[in-house]
Amino acid sequence: MRYKILTVDDSKTVRIIVRKAFRTFDCEILEAGNGVEGLAIAAKETPDLILLDVTMPVMDGVEMLTKLKSDPALKAIPVMMLTAEGGRDHVLKIAKIGVRDYLVKPFKEDVLLEKAGRVIDLKPLSDTPSKAKSIFDPATILVVEDKPAIIQQIQDGLKHTPWKVIGVAAQGEAIDFCARTPPDLVIVSLSLPDESAFALFRLVRTNIKTKYTPVFALAVKTEVGQQQQAQTVGFSAIITKPIDLGELETKMAKAMNLDTSQRYYALEGDSLIMRLPENCSPSVLAESANYLKPKFAEAVDAGTNKVVIDIQQVRSLHMGVIKLLFQAMQTCRELAMQFALVGNPHIIAECKGFEDTRGWTFYDSLDEAKANLGKAAVAPQLASA
Amino acid sequence: MPATEEITESLLRDNITRAVGDVFKTMLGRETSLTSAAEITDQQSWPPLGTSAEAGRPHVVGTVGFLGDINGLLYLYLDLDFAREATCHLLSMTPAELEEAGDEVINDAIGEITNMTVGSFKNGLCDAGYPCKLTIPSILRGSNFSIEPISSATRQIYHFNCGGHRLVADILMKVGD
After folding, report:
1. pLDDT tens-place string over residues A82-129
2. Interface list for A 81-120 with B (CB within 8 A)
3. Which tens digit of pLDDT belongs to each residue from A141-170?
4. Cβ(A311)–Cβ(A342) under 8 Å?
5. Domain boundary among A123, A151, A167
6. Which of A182-191, B50-59, B163-172 has the lowest mean pLDDT?
């Protein structure tokens, strides 16, 4: 649900500052220059929050607030005063009419967002589907761990990604970092002293800018109690030490809602390339399988009817891989697409050892496969060895 | 009833220094320091910017009044370059964008900066026992300003340094009812 925030202020400058403050959140900003306009927009749009100035021409904020609160249709709309009028007596008088909060100018954007976030559930724009990021987009990952070797391990393990991994050793540094640059994902070690991982988790969740940021817990595999506690409080995922970096990367991409299809599928020239990585873990296969039908259909829709299934990088053949390849070939048949396989000598030899895969024909390189697909008038038979 | 005569110069100085410091730090990220303070006792016209060459440069002046148990006006003087810089910072605009947007945008931004400064200043006075309300800001543009106060007004002029720019707060307060 897209929230509506109405800012009522005679200063265009303040209205621009308000609009700017909420620009990264999924909400619509409505503007009014005085109380009369404010009441009209409130009646028409029924905003979820009104930010109201006091001193304005035509109708001031106190009069608008009084009228709003005496209108049965509008009185439930939460109002937050945003005004330079801040003497104690004045604030008390306005508070009695009924306001949710009171923010005295000058104000920091962060404070405005924090107070507004107490009234409405502000969601960052990046959480909305239209803004889904790809696996090739940069992201900032904050690792909070007092053991430098673990930070180094994660940095090394993710260095092939466009993600920037920042390591800090303590809760305080993490809070400072989040205030300066809200990260895209946080990984916190549960072994930080004084249960500060849990305190940090709570702070991240209460900060409007990091409220929806995925937070992973990092725990030793045998520390089951700690892991259960982390699950109970709502950590997005638990990563166990020793860290499986492939799994970590997959979970991170999923938590950040990244489009990972480009890892496995790419349109190159007039062919769709389906590529499997070296380590085909169950999560990798599941991720690849999820994109299979939509990506093949997308290629057909774009006028491509050739597919090269590239498993040159795959280290070993197992049932999961075979099942996925059968699914790909079946999809090609359904969509009347031609396809060719590219493998390495080890995989090709392994295929010869299975009854179901014995007849598969492989090319040694992508170029060779593409060239032969170009020549073929119809899709090659699967079992034409 | 508390009157303007009861308000000491140090109360005004402390409040205007705090208000200017808060507003310029919070909204513009700039540190300010009080460089001079002057109480104008005669009723002669007095140039708030002094008589130096700087006073002849174009300025943008925000004015906001406060009405209640005490009544007065506060003028905030910024030279045009500083006003442009402040507007760009406040609205996250580039100088080229500001140029295109026009003078109205600068006027509105300086009006709001003045509103916040006078608000913060008078809120301090309210909490000290002198309740009053703000008026709507207005803007003057020009150079070589000279203000001639009415006979029943006190006048204090404070000069601040704000990151190399001069900022002048000229406070006029009505004496008596």
Report:
1. 999 988 888 888 999 999 999 999 999 989 998 999 899 888 876 544
2. 83-90, 104-108
3. 999 999 999 999 999 999 999 999 999 999
4. yes
5. A123
6. B50-59
Q: Indicate whether A227 and A281 sit together in one domain.
A: no
CATH number at residue A267: 3.30.750.24
A106 cis-preceded (ω within 30 degrees of 0): yes
Residue ranges in A274-318 assigned as alpha helix (H): 282-301
Domain count, chain A: 3
Average pLDDT over residues A325-341: 93
Structural domain for A142, as ranges: 130-255
Average pLDDT of the residues in A241-264: 89
Tell me whether A19 touches chain B (CB under 8 Å).
no
Token output for A213: 């940021």
What pLDDT digit, counting tens, does each position of A202-244 carry?
A: 999 888 888 889 999 999 988 888 899 999 999 999 999 999 9
**Percent of chain B topping pLDDT 90:** 62
What is the Cα–Cα distance from B53 to B47, expressed in whole angstroms? 12
Q: Is the peptide bond before A242 cis (omega within 30 degrees of 0)?
A: yes
A298 and A239 part of one domain: no
B92 chain-A contacts, CB cut-off 8 A = 20
Cβ contact (<8 Å) for A55 and B134? yes
* pLDDT band at residue B7 using 50, 70 and 90 as cut-offs: confident
User: Are residues A59 and A175 both part of a single domain?
Assistant: no
Rounded CA-CA distance B155/B69 in Å is 17
Q: Do B91 and A20 touch (CB under 8 A)?
A: yes
Residue B42 is predicted with a pLDDT of: 65
CB A51 within 8 Å of CB A9: yes
CATH number of the domain at B79, please.
3.40.1550.10
Domain-embedded: residue A51: yes
pLDDT of residue A379: 46
CB pairs under 8 A between A and B: 71
| Alpha-carbon gap, residue B94 to B92, rounded angstroms | 7
Tokens of A373: 């697909």
> For A12-45, b where at least 16 C-beta lie within 10 A, e where not — what string?
bbbbbbbeebbeebbbebbbbbbbbbbbebbeee
Pairing of strands A185-189, A215-220: parallel
Residues A158 and A69 in one domain: no
Q: Which of B109, B120, B127 lies nearest to residue A84, judging by beta carbons?
A: B120
Is residue A380 a part of any domain in this protein?
A: no
Q: CB-based contacts of A184: which residues, under 8 Å, 6+ apart?
A: A139, A140, A141, A163, A213, A214, A256
Paired strand residues for B61: B77, B140
ipTM of predicted assembly, 2 dp: 0.89
Q: Any idea what the CATH number is for the domain that residue A110 is in?
A: 3.40.50.2300
Q: What is the pLDDT of residue A131?
A: 45
Point out the residue among B90, B105, B119 whose CB comes nearest to the CB of A86. B119
How far is CA A348 from each of CA A21, A151, A238, rounded to the nearest angstrom? 58, 39, 37
Task: Give residue B108's pLDDT band: very low, low, confident or very high (50, 70, 90).
Answer: very high
